[in-house]
Amino acid sequence: MTSLHQPQPGGATALDRVRGRAPTIQANVRRLAAFANVHSCPTAAVAFAARVDTNKVLADTSMEMPYGQSPFAIGRGVAFEALLRRHGHAELRRVLTDGLGTDFSYAAIENLREGFQPNRAGLTMRARVTSSRMAEIAEGPQEPVVLDGAVLRADIGGLPGFFEADEMAIGVGGQIIVGENKSWPVVDGRPTDEDALGAALDQAATYVLMGRRTLEQQGVDSACMSDSVVLVTPRNTGLAPALHRQDVASRIRRIERLLGAVPDVQETAASTPPSVTFDTIADTTLPETVRLDAFGQVTDELGRVYEPASCLTSCGFAWACRQRLFADGDPALVGGSIARALPGIASLSRVAELGQGAPASPAEAPAAVPLARANRLYDEIAAVPRMTQRRTA
Amino acid sequence: MSTAMEALFAARIYAEGQALRRTTLRHVHLADPPLAIAVWRLGGERFRAAAIAWGPLDGPFQLAVPGEPRNRDLYFAALQPFAADLCARVRRAAVSREVRQRGSVIEAVPTDALQIVVPNRATVSALGLLGRYLAYLSDRGGVAPDPVLVEAGRHLRFYARNARVPGQALLLPLDRLVADHWATLLSPFEQANLAALDAQIEPEPGRHPFDASAAAEVSARIGPEPTEDIDRVTGALLAEFNAARSSSTDPAVVEPLAQPLRSHYRDLVEPVWQLMQRVVARERQLTAAPSVSRRFSADGEAFGRHVDWVIPGGYYRTTDTPRQAAITLRRLEDALAHYEADRAVEDPACMIPYLLDGDAIRGTVASVAETKVVVKVRAVSRAVIAVDSPDPVTLPGGKLLWWTATAADQPWQVESVQPNGTGSRVVLMLTAKPTAERLPAVGNVITLSTLCTGRSGFWLLPPVEPPWTHRPDVALLEGEPIDAGDSEQPVAAVDGATVPDPGRYT
Amino acid sequence: MDQDVYSISMSSSQDEVSLRLARQVIGAIEAGDRDEAVRLTRELERALTRRRTGAPADGAPAFAAQPAVVPVAQAPAPARSARQVITGALAEIGVACRARIVADYAGARFGQRVEPRMLAALRRDERRAWDKNTARPTYVVPALEGRFFQPVRGLLTLSDWPLERRLLGPWSERADHLAATAQLARQLAWLSERDAAVAERLAPVVAEMAASIPGALDGAGVDTARVASAAEAELRPLKERDEPWRQEAAARARGQLPADQQLWGTSIGVVGEGQA
Amino acid sequence: MSAGVVDCGERLDQSVVAAAAAVEQVMRANLLDLVGREAAVVAAAPAGAGKSHFVAATVGLLRAEGLRVALAAPTNDQVQSLVVRVKQLNPDLPVAFVHGVGRELPAHIAALPGVSQPSAADAQRQQDPLVIATIDKLADAFLRNGLCGFDVLVIDEAYQADAARYYTAAGVAPTHLLVGDTGQLDPFSPLDDATYWRGGPEDPLQTAVGVLLRNHPDTPVHQIPVTWRLEPRAVPVARCFYPGHPFGAAVLPGVRSLRLTRPGPGSQVLAPIDAALDEAASSGWAHVTLPGAPVLTADPATAVMIRELVHRLLARSAQVTCENRSGFTDLNPSEIAVGVSHNDQKDLLRALLDSYGLSSVRVETANKLQGLTFEVVIAWHPLAGAGVTDAFHLDPGRLCVLLTRHRQACIVVGRDSDRALLEGVPPATPGFLGWDPDPVLDGWDAHEGVFRLLEPHVIAA
């Protein structure tokens, strides 16, 4: 099995086979976060390892999920960034000075967002500037430095990925502090969406972790990467930026686990059964039924783990999987917490039967008793009015 | 929330192709008609309603479309009629009152507070944010905003905050109303989509609820947050609008130009409005539970206090003081306990989970006897009943249970539980003087549960002056005006397609 | 502030005569002797145009590199091309500047609005013109980031500015913004005594630019002296850091880059990066 | 477990005991300095650090100084045991127990000399010098009957008391001593938006200590470096729940011992059960793992296993000895507790144990076990047979309570698939500004550490 562990032609061709002509996408912080929500799903793991873009694979089928963000939402983000940068980063300097207690009025600000091409070459150059500037922390720069659009290069499951941190403030009390800008407001000290805040902090934690690795590669003590990050958001009802500082030590540990859990591309490719490919599924020239059948075969082959909330927000396959679960009557359809009440029971139809008193196998027995009871009670004491009138369609 | 019950619901709906009612009664007040509000925002702009539709749900809606909601003048101009109408309705609802005395306190409580229904919880928070924005407007930018905007803001903010109270019906998100009264195949996450819920309950004939809701998810758009496809259209129309008006805010100029945007949003609101009408009509078919009116009159008290505070010009803090938070927490917890108890005690269907989770027993009264027991050196008479439950009961001795018929009164104490055929015989002793109404008759099928609907002794409000422990060492420095940073330049929409990774699913 | 003015004019490629004239003009301006200043300006203009062969007849400002010295636009010139307006405005600003601000200034100064689209087109034309080596005294060229000398298209400069002024280091964006603000404030002060209409248009532009400078605006109107001094106060410490950096970078660029890349920047890829 | 035991000095680790004594001295001195000022001292204790002993002793000291003291804790059980503690250490000290309706002291406590149960009004009129009550009752008495004017307010279990309750009670005295266990469960609310205020200074659900330190960050916090309840073999596991808080066991290794006088194994069926009991007796820990399988929360198989363990433990007539006993004495059923996470688990086990005549064996959910001590504890692992992890079951406080109640041995019962639950990536968690800890992620780490430490004691059933 050693062949699995070394990238080699065999692995490469296996990878090509898995990908086929399916659209691919590089790993970035958002993909990583999305993958974290579905990492226990074998299909999702293979797709991520092969960098298959799960959002596009099912394009033009009834199972393609509405994806993407309002142009206004994006516009707001752009505007907020612009506000921080205009007039030579005046606002950013102010916010950092107020928030970090270090004077950034005359800080050196490396603007890595402009001039560099939006491609690997550009990213690579930015990553070089980033790492060399970060390394200067070892000499303890006499003045603070801000990397605007720092780029960290990290190996994700055997493939290089580039990660763009909004800000990196170097030399604040001998520390490097990661900053993340978000255009959603913090109203009266409270975020309008705690999950969005959590995701933002996870992002920042990812940069801290990758920053540490970048420093270590250069033999610099990574302890100077601060555990606490800054979040810059509009305050209250306008766009005026405000800075929040938050300790993300435990989130950093989570991201460390996550990176550890990312499957290696070559290993995955080589170890996936020969029959598995996303090629047919993504082939828009084929009829939908063919593509969805192919999807069914692939997921049956690899296995799928479906949890409504996490899958529906993070994976382009969710609707297609949900459809399969419905077809199989899989209890997971309605969520793991309920499925937990059904140990040893194969399908929802069987649950219904047991509810009506079908003889339970030893495996089913423990769960069957409360089900039968629930069913009896519902029919017996809840003289529940049934839907009568039908909508005139 | 019994997982066994949930599992059974899922299984039956799957097998029978039919959503199931969770309740035999309606546990939430529904005005006839309620005031309905539907909101569409610009994507990502939490304080900018691109369209507000409102009106009594039994009729057509009025629609406010600012055109460019990020322009203060246009925004306020468009919101004005909505705000004025809302304020008028609130004030009208606060007129007719009944005097109520509680302890030493005498209150004039509005008899029918204004109920607002919205499609979903997301709209509740959207209205809360809109209220937060309007309630603290200053004359920043030279022009003082129309006072009705500020007043409406305070009303919206009150409604949104009061929506935290379990069982309240002042601001009713219909997705929760439906999810509380119907079991579907939708996971809690998917239940946020009112159209999907409705489709599961009333699928087109011959369609399985699952397929119906899946289809609804594809087609239906509820708001307040627009999906990309919607805002692509909005973006184009808005660009034309802004170009055409060339920074004019003169109503005469803007009105006609906003027409395309208006019809754009009218088309979006239309189906949502019908959906809300259908949902409310359906739930109104159910008889209201007895405690519904009590809960709504509690809402009335809150409503009355709000109006009496705000109309004379009272302000609310943007954040709670430690004292307010402590009081609120306690009120909310009381409300929750009472709501859950009332539901289950009044509605057998809602009692099932408690029966399944071992927090309630149901059976036939096999015997009723009176005995004497010694309590604190005095012999007092007590009643002892034996209840035969068809199901095996596991209850620790000494556990206190309330008979649903006297759930506000004294509890029964579990004396013993013996196996009895396939079920159990439970012997209980009344913890109070046996009286006729406290005793069931032999042969009655009764339910006893851990739920008590009695009101616990009233508690006193904590001191106004916070103790030193809850005051910061150094007083926080004075902040800038509350609406600092308000009114930014409009921002051009950006083509999502040009952004490499536009984020998560919508 | 004299130093500032001189350093700007010093760093341009002028011969002694024009430099002397320039100083006299500045002296005259500061002495408040308007007519003298105007006379000297004309003379200076002639001196410069004499030196310049093939100077466009339509009178694009020839003394691009002398922000402190600007001729009075007596009669508003006939409508000029976007290019002329931009070069004109940029010349008067004198440092690398955001296209939008240049356009705003041009609009105020010459009463001619330049749409963003036109700017994009302008950039393309400039490059094409250069490739066709159409003889032009100055080209509108992008600023260059000072590490790999890649073009930063958001910031405009003029080809006849010395390299160090077209390069951007870690302090340059703020420094240039402050320099530009101070310059335009002085410009506003000067214009407001001559052309109220222009001044009225220009004031908001200056105010907008000064908005981010602590102590520059007191809330009321635009106090140009206040703006200029606030900007320069903040500029001074930045300059100490900025200028040496830019000089070093410029030296590097001169050593490394062919002439065209010194103007238009590099578009180097990176070799030796494994593809995924 | 009391620190008052002096006749067993040679059985104690004097260095640890001395260190603890030193810290307690500093705290008392610190507190006495502050008397009269609006200031507080916080004592952060690991499980079984002899908090209530420290509290009782300190109360005695304060009274000796002639200071009027109010002593409070969140629950009735806690304040009742405080009354007993105070009387044990200060027999002649009058104690006024102020209680709510139907919350009188049990007869045997009420009968203690010098213990009175006055109404709040009387307590105030008489100016009772030492009043003991729940925090809620103290607050109510303060508001309703003006019970106040104390010199010092002492709060035990201050990490379980929430800021809302503390708010009112705090008014009864200027100077406070807050004693608590940082490892146990945080204040909890059934509201589905209970995190509404989280991170804000007004959060009513932050701990009493939390709100105090937030507003007065310079308040001295002393870490008590000893555990009296746990013995050395139990300490490494306990440390998982107290990061950054060093402490050691007061009792020396080998002083305590659980022995099974009847040898196992009995029948084939009993083999794993006896193996588990033997492992627990010899090493202080046993982790019984049933075959991995998704099961109901109230899994009958697990419950039966637990009953068998209890039953067999007594059937093999277990005996214990410790620093306070001369020689071995029989293990009394009331010295055994079963700890669970859910009420349906509790009810099921209660019924099973009662049917075996084991009614005096205590069965409680974790939150009810807080502050209690037993010789042997059998813990139903929160993750046992769970298909998925969630915030409730990952809560480090819950696991901490279950695994730190015992003096001799703890037997954890779960399934061998449980550990695999932690092999993945913790779920994404929401963020709260101004609130750094993350119960899910911290709990994840704690659970992992515990699994690792229990590995050598695994008995597959």
Description:
The complex is a heterotetramer of chains A (393), B (506), C (276) and D (461). Chain A has helices at residues 9-19, 29-38, 42-49, 54-57, 71-100, 120-135, 194-217, 249-261, 265-271, 279-282, 288-302, 308-314, 318-328, 336-339, 348-355, 365-381; strands at 108-111, 145-156, 159-172, 175-181, 186-187, 190-191, 228-234, 241-247. With 393 residues, chain A is α/β, with parallel strands linked by helices. Chain A has three domains: 9-68 and 262-267 and 281-338, no CATH class; 71-260, no CATH class; 341-380, no CATH class. In chain A, helix 1 packs across helix 9 (265-271) and helix 2 (29-38) packs antiparallel against helix 12. The longest helix of chain A is centred in the N-terminal third of the chain and has 30 residues, at 71-100. Chain A is globular, with a radius of gyration of 25 Å. Chain B folds into two domains: 2-318, no CATH class; 319-467, no CATH class. Chain B contains 13 helices and 15 strands. Chain C has two domains: 16-44; 82-261, no CATH class. Chain C has eleven helices and four strands, in the order ααααβααββαβαααα. Chain C has a four-stranded mixed β-sheet. In chain C, helix 4 (82-93) crosses helix 5, helix 8 runs antiparallel to helix 9 and helix 8 (172-192) crosses helix 10. Chain D is built from 16 helices and 19 strands. Chain D has helices spanning 14-34, 51-64, 76-89, 107-110, 120-125, 135-145, 163-169, 208-215, 235-239, 271-283, 300-315, 343-355, 366-369, 391-394, 396-403, 439-454; strands spanning 39-45, 69-73, 95-97, 115-116, 130-134, 152-155, 175-181, 221-223, 226-227, 248-249, 257-260, 285-290, 318-321, 329-330, 336-340, 362-365, 374-380, 406-415, 458-460. An eight-stranded parallel β-sheet of chain D has the order 4-3-5-2-6-7-1-8, with helices on both faces. In chain D, strands 16-15-17-18-12-19 form a six-stranded parallel β-sheet. A three-stranded antiparallel β-sheet of chain D has the order 11-13-14. The longest helix of chain D is centred in the first third of the chain and has 21 residues, at 14-34. Chains in contact: A-B, A-C, A-D, B-D. The interface between B and D is large, with 39 and 44 residues.
